[in-house]
Amino acid sequence: MSELHLHIVSFDVPYPANYGGVIDVFYKAKALAEKGVKIHLHCFEYGRKKPELLEKLFYEVRYYKRDVSKKHLFKSRPYIIETRISEELVKNLLKDDYPILMEGLHTTALLRERRLKNRKRIVRTHNIEHDYYLHLSKVETDLFKKYYFYNESVKLKKYESILSKADLLLTISQTDHAYFSSKYKPVVFLPAFHPYKAVKSLTGKGNYVLYHGNLSVPENINAATVLLKEVFQDFPVPFKIAGLHPPASLSRLVAATPSAELIANPSDEQLQELIANAHIHIFFTEQATGLKLKLLNALYNGRFVLTNDKMLSGSQLQPVCIMAGSIAEMKKEIARLMKEKFTATMKADRQFHLQTLYANGNNVERLIDLIV
After folding, report:
1. Which residue stretches of the chain are H helix?
2. 5-190, what's its fold?
3. pLDDT digit string (tens) for 180-229?
4. If you count Cβ atoms within 10 Å of the first and of the last residue's Cβ in the chain, which end, N or C, has fewer?
5. What is the rounded CA–CA span in Å between residue 259 and residue 180?
6. What is the spatial distance between Cα 338 and Cα 234, in angstroms, rounded to a whole number?
7. φ/ψ of residue 52, rounded to 5
8. In Å, how far are 68, 131, 152, 246 from 143, measured between CA atoms?
9. What is the mean predicted confidence (pLDDT) over 302-320?
10. pTM to 2 decimals?
11. Which residues pair with 280 in a beta bridge?
């Protein structure tokens, strides 16, 4: 087989792979490169450094400054699209005729580009973006941000039809697949790529419940707040919250909750240690969007995972999680699980289920077949 080249256009610099979207971008590109695909990585840059590792892993790496000026807020197209338009990127893509994989709706201004209309153009959808932004507007307390999220949601809903110009959509969850495949063709479900190969969960017992996530994201602030106020306020089980950039409001709430502790901005090593030693990982969301990659981290590296149904939407992870449909059920399950040991049998069952659907090796072979 002749050499396979692929352009990947990323909405952000995908390393370090330390938040949801870029985890899938980085480990997908890495898995392809390990299979011999020559990856031409194009990154929109706005605050993250240019890591040397990307140059070592990929055939070519280019960076484009994302134009985050406020003038784009007043345009008819979404801000997340308008700020990622680059003539330099188009010129670089025109130097050959390799297929182009666009990461997220964010990078799909390229679908409007007539000069690229004869190329194979694939879009990896990371979310139903207008639903995601609508939910952000509901949980945001700052009035300016609230209006921005709502306005962006309206624009994204209107803009989304650009996807009809793509040759293929790759969805990250079954819920997203049902939505996109009802509107566009062809659409393929391709689970998230991630760094985990084997379940490393410790057997036995831990002595605390852990919630972790990026605490600067409104959805995660809201989840932590609900858990503190409604589950752990008068519940004697030790509860730890770990994550980046927690707001002062969350710090105050933790201080007022006797059983709670906040670990702000943990290092990767510290976070993985917290995940390994927790007895229960608790997840909660009021919005069923995408796949939460922190859920996979807990399943591969932690013990019991307790969650509500929206967190698992379209993930096919129900068999390896404990479900709670209400706050009362959550408390009941925590009390029950704190008495149980996580066993070697449970670990083996989890490994079997995860390798069936979420093994990078199987999914990269499928992706190569789709690109060719």
Report:
1. 20-34, 52-57, 79-82, 87-93, 129-139, 143-159, 174-181, 218-226, 248-255, 268-277, 293-301, 327-337, 344-357, 360-371
2. Rossmann fold (3.40.50)
3. 999 999 999 999 999 998 999 999 999 999 999 989 888 899 999 999 99
4. N
5. 43
6. 16
7. -65, -30
8. 20, 19, 14, 19
9. 90
10. 0.90
11. 209, 304
Among 36-50, 285-299, 303-317, 318-332, whose mean pLDDT is lowest?
A: 285-299
Residue corresponding to tokens 């639903």: 131
Residue 343's φ and ψ, nearest 5 degrees, are -100, 165
Residue 94: what residue type? L
Note whether 102 and 122 are within 8 A (CB). yes
Tell me, rounded to whole angstroms, the distance of Cα 145 from its chain centroid: 21
5 φ, ψ to 5°?
-110, 145
285 contacts 311 by C-beta, under 8 angstroms: yes
Element (H, E) at 41: strand 38-45
* Distance in angstroms (rounded) separating the CA atoms of residues 354 and 345: 14
CATH of domain 209-356: 3.40.50.2000
DSSP-assigned letters across all residues of 5-34: EEEEEESS---S--SHHHHHHHHHHHHHHH
Q: In a 3-state reduction of DSSP, which class is residue 270?
A: helix
From 209, 220, 172, 216, select the one nearest 194 (Cα to Cα): 172
Q: Which residues pair with 281 in a beta bridge?
A: 210, 305
Q: Is residue 83 classed as helix, strand or coil in its secondary structure? A: coil
Where in the sequence of the chain do the CATH 3.40.50.2000 domains occur? 5-190, 209-356
Per-residue pLDDT band for 291 (boundaries 50, 70, 90) equals low
